[in-house]
Design goal:
Strands 1, 2, 3, 4 and 5 form a five-stranded mixed sheet that branches. This protein has a four-stranded antiparallel sheet with strand order 8-9-10-11, with helices on both faces. The chain has a two-stranded antiparallel sheet with strand order 6-7. The protein is globular and about 80 Å long. By secondary structure, it is α+β, with helices and mostly antiparallel strands.
Length: 523
């Protein structure tokens, strides 16, 4: 419940930022096609070699402001850098009118946008198909653009008859221009359809027909009549605001890991008659705010460097404990900036989190990206900044014990981030080359860090046994003792790292011998 309240709070803050927008009624559902943190510019090409480009397709329509667009063809095709779409994140969202598809198997998209990715070897074949006829190759890009993006505008009545075919005919006639742009194989591209109005390119969010199409797709009636009849006719209550007699939305519409097709993280049950109504239903107003909060969480409050394992993420969702308006009025500038900017680019994350004043608590979500899935490994609620400060003090005492004094040169190691990375490094260094063994060690490391964050006692005897049982084999491995890799750590330092981890866990557990100072300096 705390996690959902925190996401809701993020959504409330985002909603206030968007309340003056001309698209205020749908702005909470808008997303960025690409994170702006991944966007380079012509000014920093040396620092960031990956620049997202937009291939703009200027459509010619008889009346751009019409509810039904009569598309006559393509006026021109050009390319700009992604960041040039607007002056900031909100303007880019509103102009692109983008939202992730509801699934890979649906034949429509929220906006006239198609992600092309980076260019490959056989560009012409990728676009038009192996035989050059895109209409007969459902694997090629042009077929996907027609069937997944454009055709539904026509089927839904927002394009006049044959508009989509006329667009595709002109797109095929201009394929050489797209191939030319995609020959830049280092940078991702996406195709964006808009309208020509004089010498101006109208983005989807500036075109009434595209905006109305987006609105129509937000709350599709997915239940068939027979399914609707099988639903129990009971009063519905929103689990967040308590509103009664409201249309319900379930959390699988918000979070990827909240699924009903199998026992999931939030529902915790399989789908069936009457199940959805019992598993945390929310009203449409709360669904809108949760959607905005989820977008804030995904864009700002996720970090991919804390867990030193590929494809693993840490979400840190802050929650204001007291009245939000009153708290934000008296909160420091540092805390206000944190709630706006998030943690994505934070280097010493836990050190930063510990510096915030009371009034905030954190919820931690350890997750793994596996293709389209988001696998949840651990979830910890209600961690105050004071607890992080206590853990950091325990780690500082460990650093003092192993360095021999409180030398300021060692202060760079005092961050709690270093302690957690040390835990991962020690456990992963004891894993063999087999994938299954690495998976076990990874899960143990996540479990230990999660327990520390949750204020639980970590059972150290099992870890000690694990370390001792591995030592004999590790000492006979020349590559472990004297690794050949350029940045590899020699076994001697890994042994010290193991001892530091055990010392830190003992202090975090508040074991008597550590707190009384009986453990002397090790080296």
């Amino acid at each position: 419940m705390g996690f959902l309240q925190a996401v809701y709070s993020l959504g409330t803050v985002a909603s206030k930022r968007n309340e003056d927008s001309p698209l205020a009624d749908i702005s909470n559902f808008l997303q960025l096609p690409y994170p702006l943190t991944e966007v380079g510019s012509s000014d920093n090409r040396a620092k960031n070699s990956s620049i997202v480009y937009v291939i703009r397709v200027w459509l010619e329509a008889t009346e751009p402001s019409s509810d039904v667009l009569d598309i006559r063809g393509i006026s021109k095709i050009d390319r700009i850098e992604y960041g040039a779409i607007g002056s900031g994140e909100n303007e880019i969202k509103e102009r692109c009118l983008y939202r992730d598809p509801v699934g890979s198997n649906v034949s429509w998209r929220f906006s006239p946008l198609h992600k092309l990715g980076k260019g490959g070897k056989n560009l012409l074949e990728d676009l038009l198909g192996k035989k050059g006829d895109w209409t007969k190759d459902d694997k090629c890009t042009f077929y996907k653009i027609y069937s997944r993006v454009l055709k539904d505008y026509e089927d839904s009545g927002y394009f006049s008859i044959d508009s989509a075919k006329r667009v595709m005919a002109d797109l095929a006639a201009n394929v050489d221009r797209i191939v030319e742009y995609l020959s830049d194989k280092k940078n991702p591209h996406f195709l964006l359809f808009g309208l020509k109005q004089g010498e101006t390119f109208l983005y989807p969010g500036e075109i009434p027909a595209f905006v109305e199409y987006f609105r129509s797709k937000l709350n599709p009636d997915t239940d068939s009549e027979s399914q609707a009849e099988s639903r129990p006719n009971k009063s519905a209550y929103c689990a967040l605001c308590g509103k009664s007699e409201c249309k319900q939305v379930t959390l699988d519409r918000v979070f990827k890991f909240a699924t009903f097709d199998k026992p999931g993280f939030l529902p915790g049950t399989k789908d069936g008659a009457g199940i959805r109504e019992k598993v945390f239903p929310v009203c449409e107003d709360c669904y809108e705010i949760l959607s905005a909060g989820k977008e804030e969480m995904e864009r700002r409050f996720v970090n991919d460097t804390v867990i030193p394992i590929p494809n693993h993420l840490l979400y840190v969702i802050p929650e204001v404990v007291f009245d939000q308006t009153e708290y934000l009025q008296r909160a420091s500038r540092y805390t206000k900036d944190f709630l706006i900017k998030g943690i994505r680019n934070e280097v010493n994350l836990f050190n930063s989190l510990a510096r915030h004043e009371e009034g905030l608590v954190y919820h931690f979500l350890f997750a793994e990206i596996n293709q389209a899935q988001l696998i949840i490994h651990s979830f910890i609620e209600d961690v105050p900044p004071t607890h992080l400060k206590q853990l950091e003090q325990s780690w500082i005492k460990t650093c003092h014990a192993f360095s021999g004094d409180s030398d300021s040169e060692q202060s760079g190691r005092y961050s709690l981030d270093i302690a957690f990375k040390q835990i991962f490094a020690v456990l992963m260094s004891m894993a063999g080359k087999r994938e299954q063994e690495q998976k076990v060690m990874k899960e143990k490391a996540i479990a230990i860090v999660s327990a520390l964050l949750n204020g639980e006692r970590v059972e150290t005897s099992e870890l000690k046994t694990l370390i001792v049982s591995r030592l004999a084999g590790l000492f006979t491995d020349p590559d472990w003792l004297k690794p050949k890799g350029k940045n590899s750590i020699p076994g001697r330092l890994k042994i010290i790292g193991m001892a530091e981890v055990m010392d830190f866990l003992g202090r975090a557990n508040k074991e008597d011998n550590y707190e009384s100072g009986l453990v002397g300096k090790v080296c």
